[in-house]
Design goal:
Layout lengths: L8 H9 L4 E5 L6 H13 L15 H7 L6 E4 L2 H4 L22 H12 L8 E5 L7 H12 L5 E7 L7 H4 L3 E4 L5 H10 L5 H7 L4 H9 L4 H12 L11 H19 L18 H16 L7 H13 L19
Helix pairs in contact: 1-2, 5-6, 9-10, 12-13, 12-14
Bound molecules: zinc ion.
Length: about 350
């Protein structure tokens, strides 16, 4: 991504002056940790000269090499599962049936460490970006430690983490920290509007204030109108509304709906759905038990059940939250996972 996210510009310029050998970039999911890490790498390698030159300039050979993923002094470690979403997929490397790994492979970490010991190709610096650093298992993290302890002068290490506490303390303590914050609402809405999103406030709320997440939702075909129609469709037990969704997205959305219905039942304001789209009448006690069940389900990322059966069953559960209307013969649905 070459267009920088506007809320990351100031922290990026700040980070350029922070001459840390290793930087730990952290902040909430959806703030743009990868975009920040990549943008900072591009700035660190930018070859713009002259006083007051803004880096990255976007015009020099180095910036161009970064944009085409061909800079010899930049290396990125990503788990396989993130390669396609972030535009780094290699056609031939992926077996079609295999589920892409969410871990960074240790051989790749070792190769990257060897690479940091080779001389700099273009004379500016070498940058190794690890996104997210929490995707390294312990052996990989331990392999990296030595590089963190005995840094080569021209090498910069950038690590990202949504939750730095998940990293080994020895890794954390050897990095300078840089925290990123979600943009103010107005700035996020402006940015979403520039990207052509209709009713950006609905999608920004849907995404819990995370603009990149709002874009991801829209990219999955969930626009503001579809989001606003969702509570009613779920009430009707209409599983076609979510038929194309993956389970993680469905579970996350149902948790948001559950949160809002509970807020509403308790007399508070919803957070993710427009208030007028939430059908009233669901009982607080049932919502509380549904919330616990959804939370439990979302902790497992490998579901033993058939995904589409589970999705249908979850939709039926949602529909059963509201009292059946007069004349309806819908039966109560037994809950899952007990
Ligand atoms: Zn440049």
């Amino acid at each position: 991504m070459s267009a920088p996210l506007p809320w990351l510009e100031a922290p990026l310029q700040q980070a350029l002056h922070q001459r840390a050998h290793a930087l730990l970039i952290h902040g909430p999911a959806g703030v743009g940790q990868y975009e920040f890490g990549f943008g900072l790498s591009r700035a660190l390698l930018c070859e713009a000269t002259g006083e007051g030159a803004i880096r990255p300039c976007g015009r020099c050979t180095a910036c161009h090499l970064m944009d085409t993923h061909g800079h010899p002094d930049f290396r990125l470690l990503l788990p396989e599962a993130l390669r396609e979403p972030l535009g780094w997929a290699e056609e031939e490397s992926r077996k079609k049936d295999a589920k892409p790994s969410k871990w960074i492979r240790i051989e790749e970490v070792r190769q990257a460490i060897d690479w940091t010991h080779q001389s700099v190709s273009r004379g500016v610096a070498k940058v190794l970006l690890i996104h997210p650093a929490t995707a390294m298992q312990e052996a990989s993290a331990n392999a990296l430690l030595k590089t963190l302890e005995e840094p080569s002068a021209q090498v910069r290490l950038l690590l990202t983490a949504t939750d730095p506490e998940l990293l080994l303390p020895t890794i954390r303590s050897r990095c300078q920290r840089l925290g990123l914050a979600l943009p103010p609402r107005e700035q996020a809405l402006e940015w979403l509007k520039e990207r052509g999103l209709a009713q950006p406030q609905v999608l920004l709320d849907a995404a819990g204030g995370r603009p990149l997440e709002a874009v991801a939702l829209a990219g999955e075909g969930v626009d503001a109108a579809a989001w606003a129609a969702l509570p009613q469709r779920l009430r009707q037990g209409d599983a076609t509304a979510v038929a194309s969704w993956g389970l993680p997205r469905l579970l996350e959305t149902l948790l948001k709906l559950c949160h809002d219905l509970m807020a509403q039942a308790a007399g508070g304001a919803p957070r993710y759905f427009p208030a007028e789209t939430l059908p009233p009448g669901a009982a607080l006690a049932e919502l509380a038990s549904w919330s616990r069940e959804l939370t439990q389900l979302s902790r497992h990322d490998e579901h033993p059940w058939n995904a589409s059966l589970l999705a249908e069953s979850l939709v039926a559960q949602a529909a059963a939250l509201w009292p059946a209307r007069a004349g309806s013969s819908r039966a109560r649905v037994t809950t899952l996972g007990r």
